[in-house]
Amino acid sequence: ATLWESVLGVERVGIRDHFFELGGHSLMAVRLCSEIEKRIGRRLPLQTLFQAPTIAKLVKTIEGGEDLKALHSLVEIQPPVEIQPGKGKTPLFFIHVLGAGLGFCSPLAAYLGKDQPVYGLSVHLPGGRLPVANRVEDLARHYVKEMRVVQPEGPYLLAGISFGGMVGYEMAQQLRQSGETSVFLALIDTSAPGGIRYGSMEGRIWEHWKMFRKQGPSYVLEKLIWRIRRFQRSLQLLGFRLRRVYLDLYEKTGRPLNASLRDFRARSYNKDAMERYVPRAYDGNLILFRSQERILGAGAEVDPNLGWGGLAKGGISVYEVPSGHLGMLREPHVRFVGKKMRTCMDRSLREFHLHSHLSPDE
Questions:
Q1: How confident is the model at residue 243, as a pLDDT?
Q2: What value does the CA radius of gyration of the chain take, rounded to a whole number of Å?
Q3: CB burial class (10 A; 0-12, 13-18, 19+) of residue 80?
Q4: Residue 257's pLDDT is what?
Q5: In the chain, helix, strand, coil percent, each to 5?
Q6: What CA–CA distance (Å, rounded) separates 328 from 322?
Q7: pTM for the structure as a whole
Q8: How many CB atoms lie within 10 A of CB 333?
Q9: Rounded to whole angstroms, how far apart are CA atoms 318 and 308?
Q10: Coil, strand, or helix at residue 55?
Q11: 248 in helix, strand or coil?
């Protein structure tokens, strides 16, 4: 309990307290797994904490002689609840951010309804291997296979934030190509290539002048804050590149990676995959939750549909959220995202069942 209290920054953690309900997120999970590995002397996959998010469950998993290397990519975030036998809710599958992080999914699940089963898809294969190094298509194929273990047939509900949205888009493509026409897809602040374009210097100066005339001095302060954040991101990018060099050198030694390096390797490979992915036109429709701060702070020409409008042939519904990128899945904004997604999911399921002449979920 002391270790959990230290990582979470809280007092008196009970053995049945939920890690993510106490404020834990993916980065904290990586840190906790690293500390536990030091104490037990063996590898602890990050997915273990998502599948056993309390001290009691985690101790049982570790001491129970379970093969921790045999964990799959599928993680149960919110268990299925059958209201009536055979009448359980259609599950939602949520795809991770860069790396293996699913911590941002837990707050969202709470606003989808306690009876809504939610599964997370996170990079993991036996032995710590990744299902793919640098192709979104292969990662999506692996996740579709894992998803069908739980749900062999549609309708399917998919959602993902950032990189996870891109993987979800490709999963939806592959599902529809296999004959599944009932696919709900929600992208949370995911940009398609070309979704943000920087114009000429003259054009940008003119846009800044128009915004200044409209908002006054507050616009200058807003841009100053954005510049500071952009500088911070530049430093983070430099740190990322330096750590990538360190990882490459470390892997050549043949020594096992700790939890922190494994998570970084996953994020690094995901980043490569994201930069190489070229999305194809999608004949279905999609839901897009867009960060308002991304629009205000880009200093560029930002497509209101973040590049997906020309790809989603079945139409696109856009909901703007007054927050930053990952802030969309934190309080207070996650409440709006969760409730709106619940409404969209229910509407889509009714339409799916109407077309297939089946009874909708109750």
A1: 74
A2: 21
A3: middle
A4: 72
A5: 50, 10, 40
A6: 8
A7: 0.68
A8: 19
A9: 10
A10: helix
A11: helix
Q: What is the dihedral of CA 334, 263, 230, 198, to 10 degrees?
A: -90
Describe the crossing of helices 163-177 and 259-276 by its angle, rounded to 10 degrees: 60
Residues in the chain: 362
Whether domain 72-356 has CATH 3.40.50.1820: yes
Where residue 125 falls among pLDDT bands split at 50, 70, 90?
very low
User: What pLDDT does 349 receive?
Assistant: 92
The residue type at 1: A
Q: What gap in Å lies between CA 210 and CA 225, rounded to an integer?
A: 19
Cα angle: 303, vertex 305, 308; to 5 degrees = 110
Alpha-carbon span 213 to 195, nearest angstrom? 26
Q: What is the mean pLDDT of residues 154-177?
A: 93
Cα–Cα distance, 145 to 168 (Å, whole number): 13
Q: And the tokens for 260?
A: 């922190």
Tell me the per-residue pLDDT of 33-63, one tens digit each, with 9 for 90 and over. Answer: 778 887 887 767 666 776 777 888 888 877 7
Angle between helix 201-215 and helix 217-252 axes, rounded to 10 deg:
130
Domain ranges of the chain: 1-70, 72-356
Task: Quote the pLDDT of residue 288.
Answer: 96
- pLDDT, tens digit (0-9, with 9 covering 90-100), for 150-159: 888 989 999 9
DSSP H or E segment with residue 95: strand 92-95
- Please state which of the four CATH numbers 3.30.360.10, 3.40.1190.10, 1.10.443.10, 1.10.1200.10 is assigned to the domain occupying 1-70: 1.10.1200.10
Output 109 or 129, whichever has higher pLDDT: 109
CB atoms near residue 296 (< 10 Å): 16
Please name the residue that has the structure tokens 């930053």. 324
Residue 118: strand pairing partners: 78, 92
